[in-house]
C-alpha cells in the first residue's frame, strides 16, 4: 500500500462485508478517519470529493447511517442524491437490478440499505460504480463496524485482545454479526449475551471459533460486566421478528442502569448502534462509560474515510493543508 | 457382475452409478429427467456395492446428459460415476466436478435472500466453502445451504 493512501488495483472498491478488508486496511482507514476528524467537526474544509455524487439508497428506515453518509459526502465537497422506496419506482415493483442501473448513471458511488439479505452484493454485481453496504436485512453492516472499531480504538488505544460483550438481539442484529467477525481478527475475547431465541446463528459462531477466538455464550449480562472492556448493547428489533408473540417474549429482557456499572472497570465503554428503546437507562448517559453518542458522531469521519477509499481518493497526511 | 443383472443393459443413453443408497430419487429430481420427457428410465436402489456397501443406479435411455447437468450431482452424489452409452458400449466416462461456484443450479433457500424475487435477473450463485463436508453458501446473502432444502430449489 502506498504511503499516501488508498491506491488499490483499480482505484475503486466495494465494501460489502468486513471480509473485503484486511486488518492492515482496517487500521489504515481508521487512521484516515482520525485525520478527517476536524473536517467532520466542521473546523476544516477539505473538498476531497468535489465533483463526486453519492447515490444514497435507503429501502429501509435509517437516521444515523443515512445522515452521516450525507454529512460525510457534503463535508468533503461532494453531492448527494437520495432514493427511498416510498415514492420511487421501487413501490411500483421495479427490480433492484433495474433501479441500480439508474443509480449507475446518476452517481459515482452508491450506498445501499435494503431489507433483503444479499442486496448489497447483488447491487455490486449489477453495476460498475463502487457499492457500500449500509445494512442488508439481518446480514452485514460493515460501515457501522468500522465506526464501532474507530470508537473502540479511540477509547482503548488499540483493537488488540479486548474483552468485548455483545448483548441483545444477536440473531437478527447485523451490526453484531459484522462487528464480531472483525473483533476476532484482532484477538478479542467475545461474550455473547442473549436470550436463547436470539442467539448468534451457529454458522457465525462457528466462523468466529474457527479464527481461534475465545467465544462464550450466556444469558446473563450482570455476570459479564466486571471483566468487560466494551459492552455493546443492541435493541431487540421488533421489525425482524416473523411473529409478534415471539417478540413479546423477549422484549425488554436486558435493561442496563448506572447502578449495574458499579463493578465495571474504569475504562470500560458502553456502546450501542442506536436507536435504543429501554435497554440502556438514561442514567447511564452521564457516566464515564457511555460512549454511544460519540459513537454515532464517529460515523461521519469513518464514512468519509470509506468514501475516499472506495473512490480511490487519497486522504492526505495533513488534512486541510 | 456376479449376481443376476437387475436391469437390462441400455442401447443408448446415460448410466449414473455409485449413487449413495437411497438418493436416486433426489438425483432424478436434480437432473430433472423425470419431468416432461417420455424416454425410459430404470432405477435400482439399495443394491450391494463393493465400494460403499449399498448403492443406487440410474439408467436413462436415449439421452446423453451434459456436463452442466451432471455437475448438479456434486451436491448429493459427488462420487457417482457416469457413463455415456452408445450402441451398448461405454463411449465416454464423465467426472462430476464441484467447481468453486455453482451458477444457476439451485436457488438460495433462505426466505429473505434478494434472489427470492424471481424477477431479479442476475444468476443464482452458490459458493463452495468446503467440498467435504459439503458447505455451500449463497454468494449474495452468505447463508449456509442445507442440501435437503437445495434439492427442492433446483433450477
Give structural notes:
The complex is a heterodimer of chains A (321) and B (155). Chain A is α/β, with parallel strands linked by helices and 321 residues long. Chain A has helices at 23-35, 37-40, 64-75, 96-106, 119-126, 142-156, 174-185, 202-210, 244-250, 292-297, 299-310, and strands spanning 53-58, 79-84, 109-114, 131-136, 163-167, 189-193, 215-218, 230-233, 269-271. Chain A has 2 domains: 18-140 and 298-310, Aspartate/ornithine carbamoyltransferase (Rossmann fold, 3-Layer(aba) Sandwich), CATH 3.40.50; 142-297, Aspartate/ornithine carbamoyltransferase (Rossmann fold), CATH 3.40.50.1370. Chain A is built from 11 helices and 9 strands. In chain A, strands 7-6-5-8-9 form a 5-stranded parallel sheet, covered by helices on one side. In chain A, helix 3 (64-75) links the parallel strand 1 and strand 2. Chain A starts with 22 loop residues before the first helix and ends in an 11-residue tail after the last helix. The mean pLDDT of chain B is 86. The A-B interface holds A 17, 95-97, 114-119, 121-122, 125-126, 136-140, 203 and B 108, 110, 112-117, 119-122, 138-144.
List the helices and strands and how they pair.
The complex is a heterodimer of chains A (321) and B (155).
Chain A: H1 23-35, H2 37-40, E1 53-58, H3 64-75, E2 79-84, H4 96-106, E3 109-114, H5 119-126, E4 131-136, H6 142-156, E5 163-167, H7 174-185, E6 189-193, H8 202-210, E7 215-218, E8 230-233, H9 244-250, E9 269-271, H10 292-297, H11 299-310
Parallel strand pairs in A: 1-2, 1-3, 3-4, 5-6, 5-8, 6-7, 8-9
Chain B: E1 13-20, H1 24-31, E2 41-49, E3 53-61, H2 67-71, E4 81-86, E5 89-94, E6 101-103, E7 125-130, E8 135-138, H3 147-152
Antiparallel strand pairs in B: 1-3, 1-4, 2-3, 4-5, 6-7, 7-8
Features:
heterodimer, A: 321 residues, alpha/beta, Rossmann fold, 5-stranded parallel sheet, 4-stranded parallel sheet, 9 strands, disordered N terminus, B: 155 residues, mainly beta, Alpha-Beta Plaits, SH3 type barrels, 2 domains, 5-stranded antiparallel sheet, 3-stranded antiparallel sheet, 8 strands, globular
Amino acid at each position: 500500500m502506498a504511503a499516501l493512501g488508498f491506491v488499490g488495483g483499480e482505484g475503486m472498491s466495494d465494501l460489502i462485508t468486513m471480509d473485503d478488508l484486511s486488518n492492515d486496511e482496517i487500521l489504515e482507514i481508521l487512521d484516515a478517519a482520525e485525520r478527517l476528524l476536524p473536517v467532520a467537526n466542521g473546523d476544516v474544509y477539505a473538498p476531497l470529493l468535489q465533483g463526486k455524487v453519492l447515490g444514497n439508497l435507503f429501502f429501509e428506515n435509517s437516521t444515523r447511517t443515512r445522515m452521516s453518509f450525507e454529512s460525510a459526502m457534503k463535508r468533503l465537497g461532494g453531492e448527494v442524491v437520495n432514493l427511498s422506496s416510498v415514492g420511487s419506482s421501487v413501490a411500483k415493483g421495479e427490480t433492484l437490478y433495474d433501479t441500480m442501473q439508474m443509480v449507475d448513471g446518476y452517481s459515482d458511488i452508491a450506498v445501499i440499505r435494503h431489507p433483503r439479505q444479499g442486496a448489497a452484493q447483488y447491487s455490486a454485481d449489477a453495476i460498475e460504480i463502487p457499492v457500500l453496504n449500509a445494512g442488508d436485512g439481518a446480514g452485514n453492516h460493515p460501515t457501522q463496524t468500522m465506526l464501532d472499531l474507530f470508537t473502540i480504538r479511540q477509547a482503548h488505544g488499540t483493537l488488540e485482545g479486548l474483552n468485548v460483550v455483545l448483548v441483545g438481539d444477536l440473531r437478527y442484529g447485523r451490526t453484531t454479526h459484522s462487528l464480531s467477525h472483525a473483533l476476532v481478527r484482532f484477538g478479542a475475547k467475545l461474550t455473547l449475551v442473549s436470550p436463547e431465541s436470539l442467539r448468534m446463528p451457529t454458522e457465525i459462531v462457528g466462523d468466529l471459533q474457527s479464527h481461534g477466538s475465545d467465544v462464550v455464550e450466556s444469558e446473563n449480562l450482570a455476570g459479564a460486566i466486571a471483566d468487560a472492556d466494551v459492552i455493546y448493547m443492541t435493541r431487540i428489533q421488533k421489525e425482524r421478528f416473523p411473529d409478534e408473540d415471539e417478540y413479546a417474549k423477549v422484549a425488554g429482557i436486558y435493561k442496563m442502569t448506572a447502578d449495574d456499572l458499579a463493578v465495571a472497570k474504569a475504562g470500560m465503554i458502553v456502546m450501542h448502534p442506536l436507536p435504543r428503546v429501554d435497554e440502556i437507562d438514561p442514567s447511564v448517559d452521564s457516566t464515564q462509560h457511555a460512549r454511544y453518542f460519540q459513537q454515532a458522531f464517529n460515523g461521519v469521519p469513518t464514512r468519509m474515510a470509506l468514501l475516499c477509499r472506495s473512490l480511490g481518493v487519497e486522504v492526505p497526511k495533513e488534512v486541510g493543508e | 457382475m456376479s449376481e443376476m443383472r437387475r436391469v437390462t443393459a441400455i442401447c443408448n443413453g446415460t448410466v449414473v452409478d455409485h449413487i449413495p443408497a437411497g438418493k436416486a430419487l433426489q438425483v432424478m429430481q436434480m437432473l430433472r429427467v423425470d419431468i416432461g420427457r417420455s424416454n425410459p428410465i430404470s432405477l435400482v436402489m439399495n443394491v450391494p456395492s463393493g465400494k460403499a456397501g449399498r448403492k443406487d443406479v440410474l439408467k436413462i435411455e436415449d439421452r446423453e446428459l451434459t456436463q452442466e447437468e451432471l455437475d448438479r450431482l456434486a451436491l448429493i452424489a459427488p462420487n457417482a460415476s457416469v457413463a455415456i452409452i452408445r450402441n451398448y458400449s461405454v463411449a465416454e466416462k464423465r467426472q462430476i466436478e464441484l467447481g468453486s461456484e455453482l451458477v444457476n443450479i439451485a436457488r438460495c433457500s433462505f426466505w429473505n435472500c434478494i434472489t427470492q424475487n424471481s424477477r431479479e435477473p442476475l444468476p443464482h450463485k452458490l459458493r463452495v466453502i468446503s467440498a467435504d463436508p459439503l458447505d455451500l453458501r449463497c454468494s449474495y446473502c452468505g447463508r449456509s445451504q442445507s442440501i435437503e432444502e437445495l434439492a427442492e430449489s433446483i433450477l
